[in-house]
Specification:
Elements lengths: L1 H19 L10 H24 L8 H18 L1 H9 L6 H6 L19 H15 L3 H23 L7 H10 L1 H6 L5 H18 L7 H17 L1 H19 L4 H22 L5 H19 L14 H5 L2 H9 L12 H17 L12 H21 L3 H7 L1 H14 L2 H7 L2 H6 L3
């Protein structure tokens, strides 16, 4: 009862912010509709917790629970040994055997089964949940509400960034961003994806919507927070965003030749990745990714993942990665297929993929190249999306994991599809949409 009451209080505060905060104004969407979207997200987050309570009952393997459960050890250290708490919270001076024996060995997720020389993002989520416990008093659904609201802020930032480029298609853009099933479902739980969408959305807004030389202190503070969060959550998403964002800013400041400029940036960055071991032998990205895939394959076999698929083993060579690109994109973007469904939870993802393929086919009916005026924005969203799809497809042999990992890429992919949509053809062939479009 107390958990429900406290969760409702925080939900009401979030809705109040939607009505009052300047950030949520000027969107072409009434605050009541935005509040409804937030309530839907929270309902999905609560539903996700029910699935991981009554369907997948092992809390130690569920992201939404395992970090929450581990965080109580870190949180309690604040009251018992405040010095230890702040060392663990910041990661400064916490690598001794004392911390391992006293705290980290008591957690299920702080130490990974397959450790590597890249940052362990589980630490971030445990620290995040430990901080939220000061607001939640240990009630899990409060974490769901707060994380849903942070995710909602990030999605709204993406919506604000691309709204000027879609004309009368604002409602379609909103539906693509807020209501695409995978984005809605996996971005609504108390997991990494919600926090990731928050940081990603804010950083995209800084890249797309602002004039860098004229920004306030708040702008640079927000930039630093979102940048820092992406580093400790999914650093590879940040790397992709830096590459695509750099190309976007280059084209924006020196218009023209967008294709050549994006190609130049990607070729340069790919060359730097290949040459990196020459200067830093301990960091060979190709070997790290190949080993990551091998570890993932081994782990999925050990735990008996029901959505495991056969993937071509990555060879740590340039050609080895290039030849795996088509398979990686298909596995990430279009699978699971309907005939691959083995459980009730795989069915929504398969249906979504059918819908996505139908939308892509429909674009041939409602698409006119001469109407595309925003080439830079299209290159940005599709280069980012396909980079995510390729990277996820290279590494993940588990469709259930790929559905989650592809969410950042799917978000911008859906934005790109809306930009490509010709609203005049749509309203001429389907008059029903004319009334909807005229509301913008």
């Amino acid at each position: 009862m107390l958990e429900a009451t406290l969760s409702l209080v925080y939900c009401a505060l979030c809705i109040l912010l939607i009505y009052r905060a300047p950030f949520f104004r000027g969107l072409g969407i009434p605050a009541s509709a935005l509040s409804g979207v937030l309530i839907i997200k929270i309902a999905c987050g609560v539903g996700l917790s029910f699935i991981y309570t009554y369907y997948y009952t092992d809390r130690s393997t569920a992201d939404i629970y395992k970090y929450f459960d581990d965080s109580v050890i870190l949180h309690n250290a604040f009251f018992d040994r405040p010095g230890d708490f702040f060392r663990m919270l910041t990661g400064v001076g916490d690598s001794s055997s004392y911390f391992v024996d006293t705290y980290y060995d008591q957690m299920n997720s702080w130490i990974r089964t397959y450790e590597s020389n890249v940052y362990n993002d589980s630490h971030t989520m445990i620290r995040y949940n430990a901080l939220l416990r000061f607001l939640s008093f240990g009630y899990f659904q409060v974490h769901t509400v707060i994380t849903c609201f942070l995710s909602f802020i990030g999605l709204t930032a993406v919506y604000k960034s691309f709204l000027p480029f879609v004309g009368r298609k604002g409602w379609f853009l909103a539906a693509a961003i807020y209501l695409t099933p995978s984005i809605l479902f996996w971005g609504s739980g108390a997991s990494k994806e919600g926090l990731l969408l928050f940081a990603l959305g804010l950083l995209i807004q800084k890249i797309i919507s602002t004039n860098l030389p004229r920004q306030s202190v708040f702008y640079w503070l927000t930039l630093a927070i979102s940048f820092g969060l992406l580093i400790v959550l999914k650093y590879y998403i940040l790397m992709i965003l830096i590459v695509t964002g750099g190309a976007y800013l280059w084209v924006r400041r020196t218009p023209g030749w967008a294709f050549a400029k994006y190609g130049t940036v990607f070729l340069f960055c790919s060359t730097m990745v290949v040459l990196l071991p020459t200067f830093f032998p301990a960091y060979n990205p190709l070997e790290i990714l190949a080993r990551k895939q091998a570890d993932f394959v081994t782990h999925s076999a050990v735990v008996g993942s029901g959505s495991r698929i056969a993937v071509t083993p990555l060879e740590p060579t340039v050609w080895g990665f290039i030849k795996n690109i088509p398979e990686a994109v298909v596995n990430t973007l279009f699978r699971p297929f309907l005939w691959e469904v083995k459980s009730a939870l795989m069915l929504p993802a398969a249906i979504e993929n059918v819908g996505l393929m139908a939308i892509m086919l429909a674009l041939f009916l409602f698409f006119r190249p001469s109407k595309i005026r925003w080439g830079n924005q299209l290159f940005f969203v599709f280069c980012f999306a396909f980079s995510v799809f390729v990277l996820v497809g290279w590494i993940s042999p588990v469709l259930g994991a790929s559905v989650r990992y592809k969410v950042p890429g799917l978000l911008l992919f859906m934005v790109g599809l809306v930009v490509l949509l010709d609203e005049n053809k749509l309203t001429n062939r389907i008059p029903f949409f004319n009334k909807l479009l005229t509301k913008q």
